[in-house]
Each structure stands twice: as C-alpha cells, then as structure tokens.
Amino acid sequence: MTFHFDPVCPWTWRASRWLVNVADARGLTIEWRSFSLAVLNEGKEIPEAYREPMAASSRALRLVEALHAKGRDKDAAAFYTELGTRVHKDGAPLTGEVVAEAAEAAGVVDAASALDDASWDAAVRAAHDRAFSSAGPDIGSPVVILEGAGRGLHGPILSEIPGVEDGVRLWDSLVPLFRSPIFFEVKRGRP
C-alpha cells in the first residue's frame, strides 16, 4: 500500500501510526510518498502562522521523495517517525531545524542534501498529483492507495491512535471500501 502524507498535519500523523501498527500486524509493506498541502493550497493566501511549518514540510517531502527514488522507503518511514515524534508527540514547532534534526536522528544524513534541492519538487508534485487524482477532489492529507483498488481514499482521520487490536479491526473494515468502485465517502463531524 502507499501512504501519501504531509508531515505538517497532525491527523495524518495519527493515521500513519495506526497504519504502521496495522502493517506490522498484517505483514503489509508501506510505501511512503508525498501529499503536499503547499501544492494543494497554491494560489491561496496562507496565514503567517502556517508559512514556516509548510515550508519546512515541503523540505521534508523532498527528502521523502529522494529516499523513495533510491528504494529507501524504510528510511523514509524512520525519518517521518523522527519528525512526527518531535512535532506531533513532543510539541516542537515544525521548522527547518527540526526537519534537519529528524533526518540526522533517522540516519539519513547521506540524503539530507535533498532538503534544499529544489529539483526534488517535481517528484513531490508528481506524488501529490497521483494521490490527488486517485482520491480527489475535495481531499487533503493523508491518502492511502491500496494495490489493486481502483481509487485511493483520503484518511482515515482519527482523533487518537488506536491500539493494535482496534486498529486492525478498523483496517479490516476499510479494505472492502478501498476495493469497492462505488464507494466514495463516509463522514462524521469533528468536535
């Protein structure tokens, strides 16, 4: 399966941790790819408070795509785990410095030059476009694409990371929806 994500999104972080637990329990492999909220919001006015985190996230996604291009999805997963733990678990602001620290902690400093290499922006956009065309319109991060399913799905949006048993039950409930060509959306308002 492919998990398209933007590291700035806390909902995406929860879904990623759920999916890591499910992958371990079900023997699944996760391909980590970009979904860029910066690309999604191009041409829109971004509030000042979100500009630095979105710029840092864009740098992080360059590294994700550089690692993916080298077949290093496990390293991309380790990088996102380090970054997400700092930002979404420990409460650090998402900055360029935090992104660089996460790359170092994940042991991917050999690829860290990608953080500032704008040539990776095309790969970020291509991964984003794949996710968006698979699950869109009217979606955000994350998007999960299940191999053999006709379309991807946005989400799930989780208020917390479920335990393994509940997480596997949720996964098992979603797989038929992934595979159904007539299914589009189930939604519940967030408090």
Summarize the topology.
Elements: E1 2-5, H1 10-26, E2 31-34, H2 37-40, H3 48-69, H4 73-89, H5 96-105, H6 121-135, E3 143-145, E4 153-154, H7 164-179
Parallel strand pairs: 1-2
Antiparallel strand pairs: 1-3, 3-4
Helix pairs in contact: 1-7, 3-4, 3-5, 3-6, 4-5
Task: Describe this structure in a few short sentences.
This protein has helices spanning 10-26, 37-40, 48-69, 73-89, 96-105, 121-135, 164-179, and strands at 2-5, 31-34, 143-145, 153-154.
Strand arrangement, largest sheet? 2-1-3-4
Global geometry: globular
H-E order: EHEHHHHHEEH
* Whole-angstrom Rg: 16 Å
Poorly predicted runs are: none
Count of individual beta strands:
4
Helical segment count: 7
What characterizes the major β-sheet?
A: 4 strands, mixed
The N- to C-terminal Cα distance equals 30 Å
Strand residues, percent: 5-15%
Query: Class by helix and strand content?
Result: alpha+beta
